Amino acid sequence: RASGAPGSRNIKVGAEVINKPNTNEEARSVRDALCKGLFANLFEWIVRQLNSALKATADAAAATASAGQGDTKLDNTAARFIGAVDVFGFESFGVNSLEQLCINYANERLQRLFVTAIFESQVSVYKKEGIAVPDIPFTDNAKVVALIDGPAAEPGILQILSEECVLGNSSDESFLDRVQQRFAVDKPNPHFARAKGRGMFNIKHFAAEVSYTVVGFVAKNKDPLPVDLSMLLKSSKVEVVAQLFTPPA
User: Fold this and answer.
1) pTM recorded for the entire structure
2) Distance between CA atoms of 202 and 176, rounded to whole angstroms?
3) CA pair distance 130, 95, nearest whole angstrom
4) CB-CB contact of 162 with 222 (8 Å)
5) How many other CB atoms sit within 10 Å of the CB of residue 92?
6) What are the average pLDDT values for consecutive 10-residue runs of the chain, which has 249 residues?
7) How far apart are CA 53 and CA 146, in angstroms?
8) DSSP 7
9) Which residues, 6 or more positions from 71, have their beta carbon under 8 angstroms from its beta carbon?
């Protein structure tokens, strides 16, 4: 029963399965993980439905073109396409947590895309064509993007957070220690700064400098949805809910 699922969890001990009650804090974590799981799976389900509908339309268009014009071929991937950019909006509050970091990171990526498309790529094309291009000053935020989400060889803040989440003795404090050690000592990043308050760090975004409070970072990034709860939702009598937790074929 879904109503009792957040209040307990099944633990396998050898061949025996034991049902253990959750504490209030654990139950709230399961509730939050369930809500986020439903939202994430619903979003992916909507995308799959749109892709399926668009592909069907493209296939029909390609068949019509081929039948009417002999060798005419239609590229199905380009025949029907919808591009959507969800602009979150930069956030800086009195207390900023993991949610604000993710939102501001999305804005940094959009800014990086804009810089690449408008300044770097277009200027390169003009120069190849022999068109004189005046020097246009712009803010390159590539180092900020790398600071938050770096490549495998140079892990950023999000990679360090993910590593902390798989450690048995991880905590918000150990996460902050690793971040400060890496970006303030070992490999100083000009866009990272130690915060004046305890349990905080600063990032100098292209829009503004923001102080992030690390309390809850590790727990929020984990949000594990119990396997038995996932199985329960997969067998839901509500068809859409069951589809959300059933891997696509």
Assistant:
1) 0.70
2) 11
3) 50
4) no
5) 14
6) 65 77 82 87 89 72 58 51 68 95 93 82 85 80 94 92 88 96 95 93 95 94 80 90 86
7) 36
8) G
9) none
From residue 248, how far is each of 40, 87, 119, 164, 244 by CA, in Å? 14, 28, 40, 30, 9
* Residue closest to 213 by CA, chosen among 41, 92, 81, 53: 92
CA distance 16 to 36: 30
- Predicted local distance difference test score (pLDDT) of residue 187: 92
CB 232 within 8 A of CB 37: no
Burial class (CB in 10 A: 0-12, 13-18, 19+), 120: middle
CA dist., res. 108 & res. 207, Å (int): 9
Q: Residues with Cβ < 8 Å from 168, sequence gap 6 or more? A: none
Secondary structure of residue 210 in the 3-state scheme: strand
Rounded Cα distance between 7 and 167, Å, is: 25
C-alpha to C-alpha distance for 30 and 22, rounded to whole angstroms: 9
pLDDT at res. 229: 84
CA–CA gap between residue 33 and residue 11 (Å, rounded): 18
**CA distances in angstroms from 40 to 33, 46, 70, 141, listed in the order given:** 10, 10, 44, 28
- Cβ pair 178, 156 in contact under 8 A: no
